[in-house]
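note to self: the first set is below, dont mix up w the second
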Amino acid sequence: MVGDTEGSGADPRRWWTLLVVSAAQLLVVLDGTIVNIALPSAQQALGMSDASRQWVVTAYALAFGGLLLIGGRVSGALGHRRTFVVGLVGFAGSSALGGAAAIPETLFGARALQGVFAAALAPAGLSLLATTFTEARERGRAFGVFAAVGAAGSAVGLIAGGLLTEYASWRWCLYVNVPIALVAVCGTVLVPPDRPVRRGGRLDLPGALLSASGFAAVVYAFNEAQPHGWGSVRVLALLGGGILLLAGFVVVEVRRSQPLLPMRVLVHRARAAAFLAITLMFVAMFGFYLFMSYYTQTVLGYSPVQAGLTLIINALAALVGSTLVAGRLHGRVPPTALILPGLLVTALGMVVLTRLTPDSTHVLPVYLVPALVLTGLGLGCVMPPTASLATAGMRGHDIGAASAAYNASQQLGAALGTALLNTVAASASAAYLASHGHATAAAASVHGYTTALTVAFGILLAAACLVALLTATGRRPGKAGTPERETSSPVPDRRPEGDPSR
């Protein structure tokens, strides 16, 4: 019977893998938001300037995003479990260093180190999950839980950041990572071991340098777009340089016999649809989280803790969507049957908030709760099938590369969404104030938020159309395989027998 543990020959310890990988996923996602809440207190305590405070966030994002593909290669070479443990220990140590920082430079360096170890931890964890759960029903449940933790992590980070900063100290927003990481390290004793990928050749150094520098330049450009605007010379130079470096990376990878990121990971249509869906979903959702935080605190007057608690609705809805909907339907329906409705339901949640005005009454029950529920359900339905599709059918080095590429897609989406939608909101607010002489600051802010959320709605609709197009063409028989295999998970390994990564 499907999912039956008894007599199936499956290692009963595999559920420990889900537990420890979910704990690591919580660390990585939570750390992206929890420090944001603590930043004003940390700035005051350490005497950071307004110009330098951004490096608390940017140092982590650049190291994490820039080194993800290298982390995926290291995970395959050292073994996923071993890399996972090294990542956890390093993340705990760098978190403790940041919490104890006495000067800004120590905090910046600690955040960069957190990003380095997260770049190894994230792809190793996803690879462990993908190699441990191969049966369709169990894979669906496992990826559902993994996605629920990832979807809820941002909201949990806002709540935990508010509570720890208000009732303990900003330093505990970093110290809290240490016990979570150490508990996960202890749990890895029960994780089934895996073997490193034995393959000849050296590290793809040109690919590593091009990918790390190109990805870091693009992410930094997105971060710089918020204070300087998209038309600034700095942003355009960083963005143009980053795109050129990434284009050079693709050229190098196509020509190398043992590339850092094999292009076969990306050219499969169903897998490309998964990468595209999760990237654009994160573009929309990270803008959504940003505006929820600002709107509830600056317009409605919520405290940081109250604003974080409001987002619990979104986290619970994501939990329902990922475990009770996507987790149970995985293997019974094609992934597209979850991804497309998830994108559309999330888009509907954005539409609800575009109807807000400065004079709207009963905002929480009429606008916020429906929007939080719909976006949470949609996110919960999209993350499990995209994570599963991204790694399905991959073996050897390819599974680490696919896991890293999936995490990189999320990082790019989050960075672009925050910068792009924040810029749209700021521009719309300024234009509203200029054209409405007697408008209040709150009215201008609400207009900016609704304009940006309208853009997010359009992004999600575009994502749904592109995913539908990719999977529709993917159903046609061809080199990629049969229609069923092209649109369902797992995707068979189609590499030649002589491929060294097999």
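second set (the one i keep forgetting abt)
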Amino acid sequence: MVYLSLFFAFVLTTSCTQDFEEINTNPNSPVSVQPSLLLRQVIYDYGEQMSYEGFTAGNLLGQYTTALDFNLFDRHNLKSPQLGGNPWPIFYQNLRDNEIILKLSQENETFAVYEGPARILKAYMSAGLTDLFGDVPYSEAFKGTNGTVTPVYDPQESIYMEEGGILDNLTKGIAAIENYNGSIALDGDILFEGDLQGWVRFANSLRIKHLLRISNKMDVSSQLQAILADGNFIDENTENAVFDFTDGEPNNFRLARLRVGDFNNFVLSETMEEILTDLNDPRIATLFRPFANSDSGDFNGLLNGIDATQNAATLADYSLAGTIFRENTGELDANFMTSMETHFLLAEAAQKGLIPSDAQALYNTGVEQAFAYWQTELPADYLTTTGAFANGDPLENIITQKWIANMVNGYEGWIEYRRTGFPQLKIISASLNNDLIPVRMPYPAEEEALNSTNYQDAARKTDGNSINVKVWWDEQAP
């Protein structure tokens, strides 16, 4: 971890001189790029920025937290990002850098070891992008200075299904790793420390995830069964695709670096409070703090989307996020994919009859791993009482437990709510979207200015860039 801290300090220092280097570089002279440095940069930059985005904006959409002020986004005016809510440039910057790694791996045999991880990362980030926005620039994007600056918007279906798309890149990424017989190690890998089999497990867990995501549109059972039979997916917390934050700068969770007033803007939501309280779930004390005005260590949540101009909430009456998100961020991960999420996905597949497995056993494993991930002791009777698989609707229980566990990935909770309807989110207090829960992120304003023709075409297909038009996999199957 000390080594990583020194490296990221170097990256942050050198990034401050980026403009100087561009001004003083001969554009006609090729510059050598080491894929190891780019790989490290892409993993860290994407993980750090999207963890922050997931907390500040994704957690509002997923109703884990609510905002006391600066809360137009929480009221579902998603075209007004505040303290977060603009992930578009994060995706495209890192996808462009990752494309350089992929190109180098294919052009130079010395770098062949990077092809598999680069394809897997491309699939991972592209899925995150299209799952939030729907149709997006893809086939003509990520090319940097060598590509068009006005890329067309590809349909989400083709981004998922066609050659060069999400599922294809995951399959080809695995094949590239399995076919690699060179002696050069994978350097710059802060997810698996160069363990190529870790990347294969990561890719297979992502295949499970994204096959389930499109399962409303097509039969994915045979593919899921093949992955299950092979058994080479993330199965233990020690195999998770994560990297650790630190307690101190520069590599701590960004919430620790916000002004205290900005951090105090995010409090426990009423939705999260009710779910955790009904479950008698001790993770509430890990994820949140007792509210200051409580005399007995109680927790209190606020309904999302208050009109802060009309109803000022008192901070001391609501529970702030837990110390793991500010004072003790060394206990927190940047979370790409985990065993707990994989087991909840498999439990869902089993419950729906897509794979021949014991849904309850998979669910129980997911819950046990989720408690361990959040460093909270699992009550001895949790899985036989309030958290029992059969306590109510098993499918709702599976998705709700996955939702709780994914708090550090708030966008994921919202995406899965859109796909499944679980957990049951609330109509917010003062909606700026006619009391509708959004089902996609809007394209950012700069797209209308910089990519006007293609933006206009995409906007027409989404009823004027509406946040209420479902993405392809969320539409009713024909």
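remember for set 2: The radius of gyration is 22 Å.
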